[in-house]
Model the fold of this input.
Amino acid sequence: MSYNPQTEPDHEITGYPPGVPYIIGNEGCERFSFYGMKTILQVHLTTLFVAAGAANMVMAEEEAQKVVHLFIAAVYTFPMIGAIIADRLLGKYHTIIWLSLVYCAGHAVLAVAENSLTGMYIGLGLIAIGAGGIKPCVSAHVGDQFGRGNWHLITKIFQAFYFIINFGSFFATLMIPWLRKEYGTSVAF
Done:
């Protein structure tokens, strides 16, 4: 009987599953990109609304804040759809892969169209959709890698998993504003 490493564990493996470093790395990168981008988003959008002709700075800040709040709401709403896609259509593995690519495309759009409100809306929309496939699936996918032979290692892997989430978030909030200051918004996004 053969097994599919995308959907079920190999019960004979006694060490760490080979896919776990990639899963943990993907999550660390996602957290770094999300929290890093979020640290400069409000300020950057305010600048764009001023350039687009907002009547005053207060109006520009309010419009930017609306966009940021809508974006964050979407990031936490789309996982409900992503969970349905994973459970009913593609499975966790393919949902993570395909929607991680959508997430990356969103950051690419932010990087190349950072001076356009339309570009920002498209990029943020893609990131929110991509998050919909990452958030509901990744931690469950980590657990799915472990079978009877290596179940004793699952606590250590989840410690590493949650460490990388916080590591990526912490360093992003320090590094991305610095990158924006030193190299510009395109590089920071």
